[in-house]
Amino acid sequence: MEPIKVQSEGGLNVTLTIRLLMHGKEVGSIIGKKGETVKKMREDSGARINISEGNCPERIVTITGPTDAIFKAFAMIAYKFEEDIINSMSNSPATSKPPVTLRLVVPASQCGSLIGKGGSKIKEMRESTGAQVQVAGDMLPNSTERAVTISGAPEAIIQCVKQICVVMLESPPKGATIPYRPKPASTPVIFSGGQVRADPLGASTANLSLLLQHQPLPAYTIQGQYAIPHPDQLSKLHQLAMQQTPFTPLGQTTPAFPAAGLDASNQASTHELTIPNDLIGCIIGRQGTKINEIRQMSGAQIKIANAMEGSSERQITITGTPANISLAQYLINASIAL
Questions:
Q1: Contacts for 327 with CB less than 8 Å, ≥ 6 apart
Q2: How many CB atoms within 10 Å of residue 88?
Q3: Whole-angstrom Cα distance, residue 105 to residue 93?
Q4: What parts of the chain have a pLDDT lower than 50?
Q5: Is 84 strand, coil or helix?
Q6: Cα(121)–Cα(82) distance, integer angstroms
Q7: What pTM was computed for the model?
Q8: Residues contacting 310, CB < 8 A, separation 6+
Q9: How many Cβ atoms sit within 10 Å of the Cβ of residue 269?
């Protein structure tokens, strides 16, 4: 499978990730009977659409892909919500159709750029698209993210999302983002092996492995890289990892990496990857700086085998807890893709 080729649309030619906050009923509408609706959205848009697990009143829907795929996915979601509104109105005496509303979750460090000096940018977005846009004044609980609410007709919402994407690409997040995770109802998390854990961190680890299972193989074809410049800086890599892998336990205000954040019941295991020789330099970095960053951030042990004569590939062995391994794999993929 070839690495994803990104179409250029109006100067945007990157892969991006947008997070949406939805109520349970909205998520049910997006998933559809036996998952048919979300399956069709994935196939027709070409975007990856992940829905957070957990028995929560709110869920996070993550949409990743080239910008044109993201816009298609947003269009489908907006039109689906409009259809739901029309259906609900057929049973009600109301005559005026309420607008479609979507809530984006955006790192607080990017919200200033969305608002603009003296509110100029947000005013321009409202006027040029016809959508209502509001940026929440407070951060979402236990995170450094804010909700951005867009409402209006589906066409207006799509135009508004395009403009927001441009702003987010022009003004990448500063520092590390602690992602918002909706608080789960306090029910136990049951792992595939039958162990039961009631803590939210257990839930996030389960989410992480689910999230990373869907990465296409072999390891160097990736669909989830971020549009963040200068990825060789540790802070940017840190940002990259935190946005994809929500590790921070609820109530904690600093990012926790699995080496410190997971308990000892997560037994160490080993995972092997095969990487083409011509990409190995991207992972090692100048004088080993990149591989050392990946080791430090993931908490995993990573060994790169010597080149074998006649072979065009190198073996990488990753040892650690499942979460350490997943994060190390993600960072390796990201260093190749960016």
A1: 208, 241, 245, 247, 257, 258, 297, 298, 299, 300
A2: 11
A3: 33
A4: 1-11, 187-265
A5: helix
A6: 27
A7: 0.53
A8: none
A9: 12
- Number of residues assigned to the chain: 338
With CA atoms as reference, report the closest residue to 229 among 304, 88, 338.
338
Q: Which of 141, 106, 138, 176 is nearest to 251 (CA)?
A: 141
Reference 198, options 185, 179, 182; nearest CA is 185
Residue 111: strand, helix, or coil: helix
- Could you identify the residue written with the tokens 């508004």? 160
Q: Are 338 and 16 in contact (CB under 8 A)?
A: no
Q: Report pLDDT digits (tens) over 32-68.
A: 999 999 999 999 999 999 998 877 888 999 999 998 9
DSSP string, 133-178: EEE-SSPPTTSSEEEEEEEE-HHHHHHHHHHHHHHHHHSPPPS---
Q: How would you label 1-22 residue by residue, b for 16+ Cβ within 10 Å and e otherwise?
A: eeebebeeeeebeebbbbbbbb
- Distance in angstroms between the alpha carbons of the first and the last residue of the chain: 18
Q: Rounded to an integer, what distance in angstroms lies between the CA atom of residue 245 and that of residue 132? A: 31
Element at 41 (helix H, strand E): helix 36-45
Q: Which residues pair with 42 in a beta bridge?
A: none
pLDDT digits (tens, 9 = 90+) for 170-216: 998 888 888 998 886 554 444 444 444 444 444 444 444 444 443 33
Residue 174 neighbours by CB distance under 10 Å: 14
